[in-house]
């Protein structure tokens, strides 16, 4: 989705110690993901705060290029975990355990999924800013009947993927506030959780699937 009229959107953690903004967030994708990893991650964050999943176990994110994310305050509050040695980077705040973003291990993918809750905590009307949901991912892992697949979902994914390829080809993937310039490693140490803890989190996310989906996306 092209948000050419939007110049900047605020985001923050629940307590307000961390603040950031999305500058001209073009080619954004509004997604709800029901994968077990996102559900497990939400259970991990319950040591800080209650779960922020929808009634079917979904997590809402805004996917866009990292160049649009600008840190403003409280970067020292950021923490990063991975659910496995090869898993994605999951960013949250130490102060109040707010989910902030998910990024791939491969920096050249030029992709970041911003937690919609971090935008709402800053007073952003997510639907007004980004429009209706465009992708409902991993519906097979939902609890009960997940949201229906939006019309033209495959087209939205294709257009978004083309935008990521453009980021990579132009070198703009290097503009990433969550990575150290030159090394392209996360700006904070990454904690890979232990296998036993991951198994416990997966057990909390166990369910009986009621729907099926051919699309599997990792945020």
Automatic annotation (TrEMBL):
Phylogenetic classification of the source organism: Bacteria, Pseudomonadati, Pseudomonadota, Betaproteobacteria, Burkholderiales
Protein name: CENP-V/GFA domain-containing protein
Organism: Lampropedia aestuarii
């Amino acid at each position: 989705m092209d948000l050419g009229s939007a110049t900047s959107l605020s985001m923050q953690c629940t307590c307000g110690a961390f603040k950031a903004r999305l500058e001209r967030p073009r080619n954004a994708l509004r997604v709800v993901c029901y994968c077990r990893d996102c559900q497990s991650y939400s259970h991990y964050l319950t040591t800080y705060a209650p779960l922020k999943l929808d009634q079917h176990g979904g997590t809402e994110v805004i996917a866009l290029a990292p160049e649009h994310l600008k840190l403003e305050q409280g970067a020292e509050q950021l923490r990063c975990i991975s659910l496995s040695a090869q898993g994605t980077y999951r960013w949250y705040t130490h102060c109040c355990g707010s989910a902030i973003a998910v990024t791939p291990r491969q920096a050249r993918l030029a992709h970041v999924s911003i937690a919609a809750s971090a935008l709402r905590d800053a007073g952003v009307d997510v639907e007004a800013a980004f429009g209706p949901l465009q992708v409902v991912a991993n519906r097979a892992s939902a609890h009960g009947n997940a949201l229906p697949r939006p019309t033209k979902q495959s087209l939205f994914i294709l257009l978004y993927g083309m935008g990521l390829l453009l980021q990579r080809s132009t070198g703009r993937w290097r503009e990433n506030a969550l990575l150290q310039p030159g090394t392209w490693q996360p700006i904070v140490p990454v904690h890979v959780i232990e296998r036993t803890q991951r198994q416990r989190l997966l057990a909390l996310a166990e369910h009986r699937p009621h729907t099926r989906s051919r699309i599997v996306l990792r945020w």
